[in-house]
Structures are given as structure tokens and as C-alpha cells.
Amino acid sequence: MSFKKNNMTKSDLVSEIADKTGIPKIDVLLTIETLVKELKVAMIGGESVFLRGFGTFYPRKRAAKVGRDIKRNVAVVIPEQYLPDFRPAKEFLSDVKTKCKKAKG
Predict the structure, then answer these.
(1) Does a structural domain hold residue 73?
(2) How many domains does the structure of the chain reveal?
(3) Alpha helix (H) ranges present in the chain?
(4) Alpha-carbon distance 28 to 31, whole Å?
(5) Which domain holds residue 49?
(6) Is 104 domain-assigned?
(7) Is 103 contained in some domain?
(8) Which residues sit opposite 62 in a β-bridge?
(9) Number of CB atoms found within 10 A of residue 14's CB
(10) Distance of alpha carbon 60 from alpha carbon 73, whole angstroms
(11) pTM for this structure?
(12) How does pLDDT run across 45-84, given as a tens digit for each residue?
């Protein structure tokens, strides 16, 4: 009985790319790790990263707000912060909407 996972891991991605391109797995792994590192560096520096046909990674500012500590029933100020965000490209978003095979379970 074959069991298919619902999530692809970095290892799975490396194997798929290596199998389809013939590039050694270690080179694919180094490339993916470098891509992720450079995405982080750019976003920490306040830059967005645009990958044509895929989407844009960018830092999004979340404004300060007042929250509540429910254990002590007091108001708590949550400071502004930046969070990583992703905006998919139109064609990528359209493909996912129309072609995605949802896991049944």
C-alpha cells in the first residue's frame, strides 16, 4: 500500500530537482540553501524579492496594537513588527486555483 505525504520537504524538493535535471543532489541542496539565505538577507534589509511567474516575497509591517493578557486581565501593548509575506504571481495563483488536487482525508 502506497502512502503519499501531504507536504513536500526540502529533501523531497532536492530529490525531484536532481532527478529531473541530472544535477547532483549536493549541488541542488547548496543552490536551494543559498536561495533561502539570500531571500532572508534581502527581506531583513527591507527589500522585496520578485520571481517572475512565481511571486514576490516582501517584509510586511504590522502596526502596533493593544492586546489583552487573559490570565491577568490587563491590556498589553504589542509593538509594531515586520513579518515575511508572499504575494503569488497571477499565473501561479490561477494555476493553483484551477489545477490543485486537494488531499481527501
Answers:
(1) yes
(2) 1
(3) 10-21, 25-44, 90-99
(4) 5
(5) 10-92
(6) no
(7) no
(8) 81
(9) 20
(10) 30
(11) 0.76
(12) 999 999 999 999 999 999 999 999 999 999 999 999 999 9
